[in-house]
């Protein structure tokens, strides 16, 4: 039996890669970061033409009903090109939430629009995934939401936002709802949109068809796998850039790649990151086929890529020497992307604790 990607999956990833090489080169990323664009319209349009926003939308609502592994392959390419366009929330997490716990009317209203790229979706679940913070948390009562949610993904320009309440429920809020205040957050990664959402008696629709708590768990798991895949792609690009630089930069009349110390640095990066690929693929596969393992594997994938990604980002920068810190080389875009991926939806320390609890090795 062959354990690997199908021909269709290989073609999918190559198609996304070819498109991003064209529409998201470093010059475009730099321009988007300078303007504060975290969902560049031209790049989003190109992704919509590929159909990526409909990947996780069921066929009944105009999507393609694909697997999380398919989505992870796309996320890897987005990380590789530090693409300033929304994907994890709009194309993966929100469709899973709405399809899993939404009513027929909610599914028919939003999923076709998300699939076509007509509507953008945000997700505000940081408190459920990363733990409560002082003053944060959203309460639901009488169809209204109050409170504050931090680090909402892709919510700034979203038409609809999936919000997790303190009690574990999920709610849909329109992006322009009365009483909703969006405060854009600036992080180290200027390619991804984060917001603080403040709710003051904001009208919301509960996602109450089925088990909302179980659906929230799946949304968190899917988000963690997407971030792990994003780190995988960003990390491999940093390795390739380091190897290419080592083959060009000369010192003492020799390219630095001929020095044993530099060879070891590059080899160690590759040997540390490559095992993450199979772990990310397995976690994505488990999400659709082995629900009893999905949360555990998502936690492992997020934790491992978070730590390995940090090692790769640091080491690849060191291979570049002083040039690694310059904007001319642009390595910092990947460095910062990996840094934010590491913290969103649970740090390595947190997800490993969750994994220990799931396996009965630690108390909750």
Describe the overall structure:
The strands form 3 sheets. Strands 1-4-5-8 form a 4-stranded mixed beta sheet. Strands 2-3-7-6 form a 4-stranded antiparallel beta sheet, with no helix packed on it. It has a two-stranded antiparallel sheet with strand order 9-10. It has 12 helices and 10 strands. The protein has helices spanning 7-23, 26-35, 41-50, 68-80, 88-101, 104-116, 126-130, 212-246, 260-289, 291-319, 331-343, 348-358; strands at residues 121-124, 137-141, 144-153, 160-164, 170-174, 180-185, 194-203, 205-207, 250-251, 254-255. Strand 6 (180-185) and strand 7 (194-203) form a beta hairpin. It has 3 domains: 7-116, Acyl-CoA dehydrogenase/oxidase, N-terminal domain (Butyryl-Coa Dehydrogenase, subunit A, domain 1, Orthogonal Bundle); 121-211, Butyryl-CoA Dehydrogenase, subunit A, domain 2; 213-358, Butyryl-CoA Dehydrogenase, subunit A, domain 3 (Up-down Bundle), CATH 1.20.140.10. Helix 4 runs parallel beside helix 8 (212-246). It has 364 residues and is of the alpha+beta class.
């Amino acid at each position: 039996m062959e354990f690997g990607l199908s021909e269709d999956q290989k073609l999918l990833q190559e198609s996304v890669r070819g498109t991003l090489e064209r529409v998201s080169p470093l010059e475009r990323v730099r321009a988007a970061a300078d303007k504060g664009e975290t969902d560049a319209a031209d790049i989003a349009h190109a992704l919509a033409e590929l159909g990526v926003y409909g990947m996780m939308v069921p066929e009944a609502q105009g999507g393609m009903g694909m697997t999380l592994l398919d989505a992870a392959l796309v996320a890897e390419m987005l990380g590789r090109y530090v693409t300033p366009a929304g994907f994890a929330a709009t194309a993966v997490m929100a469709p899973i939430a709405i399809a899993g716990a939404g009513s027929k009317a909610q599914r028919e209203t939003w999923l076709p629009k998300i699939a076509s790229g007509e509507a953008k979706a945000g997700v505000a679940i940081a408190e459920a995934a990363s733990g409560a913070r002082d003053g944060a948390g959203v309460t639901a009562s009488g169809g209204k939401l109050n409170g504050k949610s931090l680090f909402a993904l892709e919510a700034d320009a979203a038409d609809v936002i999936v919000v997790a309440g303190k009690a574990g429920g999920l709610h849909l809020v329109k992006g322009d709802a009365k009483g909703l205040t969006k405060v854009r957050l600036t992080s180290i990664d200027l390619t991804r949109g984060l917001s603080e959402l403040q709710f003051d008696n904001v009208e919301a629709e509960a996602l109450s068809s089925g088990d909302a708590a179980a659906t929230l768990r799946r949304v968190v798991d899917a988000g963690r796998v997407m971030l792990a895949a994003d780190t995988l792609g960003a990390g491999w690009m940093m390795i390739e850039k380091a190897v290419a630089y080592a083959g060009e930069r000369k010192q003492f009349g020799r390219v630095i790649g001929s020095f044993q110390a530099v060879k070891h640095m590059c080899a160690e990066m590759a040997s540390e990151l490559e095992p993450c690929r199979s772990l990310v693929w397995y976690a994505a596969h488990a999400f659709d086929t082995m629900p009893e393992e999905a949360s555990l594997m998502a936690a492992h994938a997020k934790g491992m890529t978070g730590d390995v990604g940090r090692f790769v980002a640091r080491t690849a920068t060191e291979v570049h020497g002083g040039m690694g810190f310059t904007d001319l080389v642009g390595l910092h875009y990947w460095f910062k992307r990996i840094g934010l991926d590491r913290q969103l939806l649970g740090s390595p320390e947190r997800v490993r604790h969750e994994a220990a609890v799931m396996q009965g090795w630690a108390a909750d």
